[in-house]
Amino acid sequence: MNSSPVWIAGGNQSDFARNITKEGGDIGTLMAETVEGTFRDTGIDPELVDVIHIGNAFGQLFTGQGHLGAMPATIADRLWGVPATRHEGACASGSLAILAAMADLESGRYDCALVVGIELEKTVPGDIGARHMGAAAWVGHEGEHAKFMWPYMFSEIADAYDRRYGLADEHLWAIAELNARNARANPNAQTRGWDYGPTSFTDDPLANPLVEGRLRKVDCGPMTDGCAAVILVSQRFLDRNPTTPAPSRILGWGHRTVGLGLAEKLRRSSDDYLLPHVNATIIDAFTRAGITTVDDLDLIETHDCFTISEYLAIDHFGITPPGESWRAIEDGELETSGRIPMNPSGGLLGGGHPVGATGVRMLLDCHRQVTGRATANQIPDARRAATLNFGGSTTTTVSFVIGA
Fold first, then answer.
1. Burial, 402: exposed, middle or buried (Cβ in 10 Å; 0-12, 13-18, 19+)?
2. Which residues, other chains included, contact 294 with Cβ-Cβ below 8 Å and sequence gap of 6+?
3. What CA–CA distance (Å, rounded) separates 374 from 60?
4. Residues of 111-147 as b/e, b for ≥16 C-beta within 10 angstroms?
5. 53 to 70, 83, 97, 104, 312: CA distances (angstroms)
6. Closest CA relative to residue 361, chosen from 404, 301, 288
7. Phi, psi dihedral angles at 8 (to 5 degrees)
8. Which of 165, 329, 374, 385 allows an S-S link to 378, with CB 3.0 to 4.6 Å?
């Protein structure tokens, strides 16, 4: 376990179904209300915050606004003068902000950190938004002819699975259906009110058209506006503030970064895993948390920007042997009542994916699960949960284990 414990005091998440621009708001108004809700949730006075870390991937591209480390002091007068930094690692930006805050607390430099993940993606039409997000690939070296960069790239990953093990698209659509179903119970999920018909999760060309390669509409996560925030504290903070609401603890973490290009990642596949660095990240988190197997967990919040992302998470977590993720899907092991519930929140496919916020949202959901505060999405008696968050084509990969 971590020698200097880091605790999650609580947090807040915006409603991911909103369109902030249409409401007349901007990235500052969204951050302001989320941060205010975080202080309400934790009961921690803003003046006790020693440091702030912001996760944001594409702020300048979608909004024109840079220098987001200064935004908390801009929207909350009581945070004026608090040191703050923005972190960018594509869809893993929020998790990188968490890691930086943890390092501050573990070193003894600070005792109370506010971590905010935020992204506005509905400021432009979808095709332009997809082009903005392509900046997280190896620009000029891959996907040059794709209309939608990331559906194209993850279709390539699906094809690599298919060549190596075989892959039925029906199993991918089953992942999409499960996440959509879980999202219905989540009051902050982007798709909670979306209508799906009997052909939505099939190869019907009208209900579920192809987007790029083999991936169809339900295989792809939506564009999302959203913000999530947590307050992390040290043991010293808890000793000085014993009335802090029941916190959870970050038991372990893993963080690996590899090259940008997908082709090189696939070239380095091992005999055991298609993307061995993803499995290594998870094992690092398990080892630091003092657990040996996925069955030591009660649930997982994983990165399902596309259905194949969750499919690869299944075997890379060790829920099944490599290449046999389909077994967990067919056997119902990922259901909220199954062996290892995956994305009870609805994940990214159902819940939404404001890329800079996703890693923070995952941590917050796991905190709520292990402290019994996940309401309608609660997994009974959950005491230990894990996240898997990655940016690009698994270029930056982060995993946390959270316990009560």
1. buried
2. 300, 317, 318, 319, 340, 386
3. 33
4. bbbbbbbbbbbbbbeeeebbebbbebbbeeebbeebe
5. 10, 9, 5, 10, 30
6. 301
7. -100, 115
8. 374
- Give me the count of residues in the chain: 404
Structure tokens at 401: 């284990």
pLDDT per 10-residue tile (average), the chain, 404 residues = 83 98 98 98 97 97 97 98 98 98 98 98 95 97 95 98 98 98 98 97 98 98 97 97 91 98 96 96 98 97 98 98 98 98 98 98 98 96 98 98 97
3-state secondary structure of 188: coil
Q: What is the rounded CA–CA span in Å between residue 48 and residue 50?
A: 6
What local confidence, expressed as pLDDT, does residue 246 receive?
Answer: 81
Q: What torsion, rounded to 10 degrees, do the Cα atoms 160, 341, 118, 261 define?
A: -10
Report the half-sphere exposure of 211 (CA within 13 A, side-chain side).
23
Per-residue burial over 7-33, b if 16 or more Cβ lie within 10 Å, else e, is bbbbbbbbebbbebbeeebbbbebbbe
Give the pTM. 0.97
Please give the pLDDT value at position 3.
Answer: 65
**What is the spatial order of strands in the sheet that 384-391 belongs to?**
84-87, 51-55, 112-119, 226-234, 6-13, 248-257, 396-403, 384-391, 299-302
Strand partners, 7: 233, 249
What pLDDT is stored for residue 131 in this prediction?
94
Closest CA to 386 of 323, 296, 307, 322: 296
Say which amino acid occupies 402.
I
Task: Report angle CA 42, 44, 46 to the nearest 5 degrees.
Answer: 125
Closest CA to 382 of 342, 350, 348: 342
Q: Cβ distance 300 to 389 under 8 Å?
A: no
Residues 6+ apart with CB under 8 A from 323: 161, 164, 165, 166, 315
